[in-house]
Amino acid sequence: MSPLDTAYRAHWIKLIKRLETSFFYYDLDWLTEHLKYLDSHKDPDIKFWYACKANPLSAILKIFRNLNFGVDIASLGELEQALSVGLKSTEILATGPCKSKKYLQSLLKNEVEVVVLESLNQALWLNEVSREMNQKSKVLLRVQLTFDGGHSVLGGNSITPFGVTPDEWQTLNFKELNNLEVIGLHAFQWGNILDLEQLKNIWWKTTTECLELADKMNFKLQVLDLGGGLGVPYESHQKALDFEAVTALLAELKTKFKLPAIWMELGRYAVAECGYYLSQIADRKQTRGLDLLVLEGGINHIARPALTNQAFPAHPLRVTDKPFSTSTTRFQVHGPLCTALDKLGQFDLPSDLDVGDWIVFSKAGAYGFTEAMPFFLCHPLPAEVIQFKGDVVTPRTPKTSTDWLV
Fold it and tell me: Quick one: how many helices (H) and strands (E) in the chain?
């Protein structure tokens, strides 16, 4: 069912008239039920963390907190956001390739229980900081593996800043780093996967090589963190993953390789489908036989189409009761920025779509505003609106350039 066939439409029209600018809309009732479903269908030895880079809005983090999910953070800002909503430090996992010695000190001062180490320097620094603070820190070592071909946002087989090779980790003598307790390994290089067989191939290879590394380094693999990677179908021809089949695959993996615990860091798969982004059409024109729409918001609000060359699904919205034409036109949709990068995709939309109408992008609960480039050209920042338990509130009101320019 289209989001325009639901009660959302009435809320959206009221918000359009009140806000008069682009906005994100998150259905936290849907998110709550989705997370309950995910939790109820997993093995007790599989722990889900929410990778809050997908969407760190405090109202969303509170849902994860209330449902006892852990949160994966990758910066001091995300750490502060997680703590500000009342997440326990024992439910925070610190990942991310950029960890300075100062940042590692902040993690320990805030009692973050497990840190994912992504370089030899990080291991040396954390050991030193832990010794100075008279404590022993639990760590996962992030491993960058070699796969046959392919590329993803997280690297695939490309060389990336995520972790180091198994050979590199073996150059460190962890017996001398006696303020670190290596409890497991982390390996995650593929994102937005929709094919169960591809997941199986990646997870089996990852597990085999991680167990070999643990054996060579002479430590017990208590935790294997497989990261995220569960995909969301943005295109109409794509089929959604069967989550029960995914959890059955994880259970098979745990049994086959005798793994004590598996961790997964769900970002997109957890929150994408609870969110929408709405922006008004500012102009319509035709260039060299191609029909173009220019919106008031673009990659300054949702950068993912430019980063991945994959669009969010688009739906037309008209504030009046006048119905759209049943005929469609192929439109190329752009945002307001002075760069050809500001392209949101090509879509078959009603032929009479025009200036003043709106476009609703669905599955925008993940990798929306905080992934964007909001300050370029000094356009207004979007509002963020939540629906929860019958209430519709606006935790982030619209902002203009006067709020940040100096």
Answer: 11, 17
Roughly how many angstroms between the first and final C-alpha of the chain, as a whole number? 46
Contact 93, 114 (CB under 8 A): yes
Tokens of 61: 């983090």
From first to last of its 406 residues, what are the pLDDT tens digits of the chain?
Answer: 455 666 799 999 999 999 999 999 999 999 999 999 999 988 899 999 999 999 999 999 999 999 999 999 999 999 999 999 999 999 999 999 999 999 999 999 999 999 999 999 999 999 999 999 999 999 999 999 988 765 555 656 677 778 899 999 999 999 999 999 999 999 988 788 999 999 999 999 999 999 999 999 999 999 999 998 999 999 989 999 999 999 999 999 999 999 999 999 999 999 999 999 999 999 999 999 999 999 999 999 999 999 999 999 999 999 998 999 999 999 999 999 999 999 999 999 999 999 999 999 999 999 999 999 999 999 999 999 999 998 999 999 999 999 999 9
Tallying the residues shown for the chain, one arrives at 406
Domains contained in the chain, CATH given? 3-25+273-403 (2.40.37.10), 95-266 (3.20.20.10)
The 8-class DSSP code of residue 288 comes to: T
Hey, what are 43's tokens? 């093995």
**If phi over 0 gives left and psi between -120 and 50 gives alpha, with beta otherwise, what is residue 126?**
alpha
Distances from the Cα of 41 to the Cα of 114, 238, 248, 300, 392, angstroms: 25, 23, 9, 37, 30
What is the C-alpha to C-alpha distance for residues 72 and 115, in angstroms, rounded to an integer?
10
316 forms beta bridges with 359
Element (DSSP H or E) covering residue 117:
strand 114-117
Is residue 25 within 8 Å of 317, Cβ to Cβ? no
d(CA 276, CA 362): 5
Q: Looking at 164-260, which runs of residues are DSSP E strands?
A: 180-186, 223-225
